[in-house]
Design goal:
alpha/beta; Leucine-rich repeat, LRR (right-handed beta-alpha superhelix); 2 domains; 9-stranded mixed sheet; two-stranded antiparallel sheet; 2 helices; repeat; Leu-rich_rpt; Leu-rich_rpt_typical-subtyp
Length: 228
């Protein structure tokens, strides 16, 4: 740093409205998509508020530390991709995105998610993998349309109880979490850290289903032998 000059916090690259408009496009199914991934900015450009009618917004792989409250203006948005940033929290205003179907928050620095997330009634895919989460708010169980949830590479020591209330949930990825399962007080704890991927039986082919059922019976036999 040059002597006599005060250092400034880097905000990354600047995106103008004209530049943002150049990154607009249509998906194969005719959705309006704004792709601002890999743009190296640390602050979400205020100018994109004027593009509030978009259906999909990709802000992934940037340097973003905070999502501005004006995110609630994008009331038509069905897909919001924020993976691979530096987010430590989410604004409560995200609850206004009532048409949101897909929310990708993977690979950030989240230690918690707001309970209001459970009010996104149409959400069917939620990726929270590669964060610092230890638990989920019980309100997440109100996401009755949720099919897929990614929770891998966090700090969960148990399977979040709220998942049991999601009737349409098909796939849960809990890989590489320090899940602790208590058998009995005398037998201590089993720690599973590498792989824990849950799916509904209807998602499996006959061969995979038979294999899983066989492995389940083997595991049940092991548990029974340890208890007895």
């Amino acid at each position: 740093m040059a002597k006599g000059k005060k250092g400034k916090k880097s905000t990354g690259k600047t995106i103008t409205l004209k530049m943002a408009q150049n990154y607009m496009g249509l998906t194969l199914d005719g959705k309006r998509r704004l792709d601002l991934s890999f743009k190296e900015f640390a602050t979400v450009p205020k100018c994109i508020q004027k593009l509030w009618e978009i259906d999909e917004l990709d802000l992934s792989r940037n340097l973003i530390r905070k999502i501005p409250d004006f995110i609630d203006k994008f009331i038509n948005m069905s897909v919001l991709d924020l993976h691979s940033n530096y987010l430590e929290a989410l604004p409560v205003t995200i609850v206004h995105l009532q048409n949101l179907l897909v929310l990708n928050l993977c690979n950030n620095r989240l230690t918690s998610v707001p309970s209001e997330l459970g009010l996104l009634k149409k959400l069917h895919t939620l990726n929270l993998g590669l964060n610092l989460l230890e638990d989920l708010p019980s309100s997440i169980g109100a996401l009755k349309e949720l099919r897929h949830i990614g929770l891998s590479d966090n700090r969960f020591t148990r399977i979040p109880p709220c998942l049991s209330r999601m009737n349409k949930l098909e796939k849960v990825n809990l890989d590489r979490n320090p899940i602790l399962t208590e058998l009995t007080p005398s037998h201590g704890l089993i720690m599973t850290t590498e792989r824990l991927y849950l799916v509904t039986e209807s998602c499996l082919c006959d061969t995979c289903l038979n294999m899983c059922q066989t492995e389940r019976r083997k595991m049940d036999d092991v548990v029974k032998s340890k208890i007895t």
